[in-house]
Amino acid sequence: MLQKKSRSSPPNFILQYIFKPWQQMDLPLLFLTVAVTIFGGIMIRSTQPNKVVDDCLWHWITGGVGIFFALILARVPYQNWLKFHWLIYTITNLSLIAVLVTGMSVKGAQRWINIFGFYFQPSEFAKIGIILTIAALLQKHTAHKLKHVFKVLAFTELPWLLVFRQPDLATSLVFGAIVLGMLYWANANPCWLLLLISPVIAAILDNLFKPGWIIWSIFMGVLAWLCLPWQRFGISALGGLSLNLFGGELGAFAWNNILKPYQKTRLTVFLNPEQDTLASGYHQVQSKIAIGSGQLWGWGLNQGPMTQLGFVPEQHTDFIFSAVGEQLGFIGCVITISIFCLICLRILHIAQTASDNCGSLLAAGVLSMILFQTVVNIGMTIGLVPAAGIPLPWMTYGRSAMLTNFIGIGLVESVANFRNQRKYY
Question: pTM higher than 0.85, yes or no?
Answer without folding.
Answer: yes
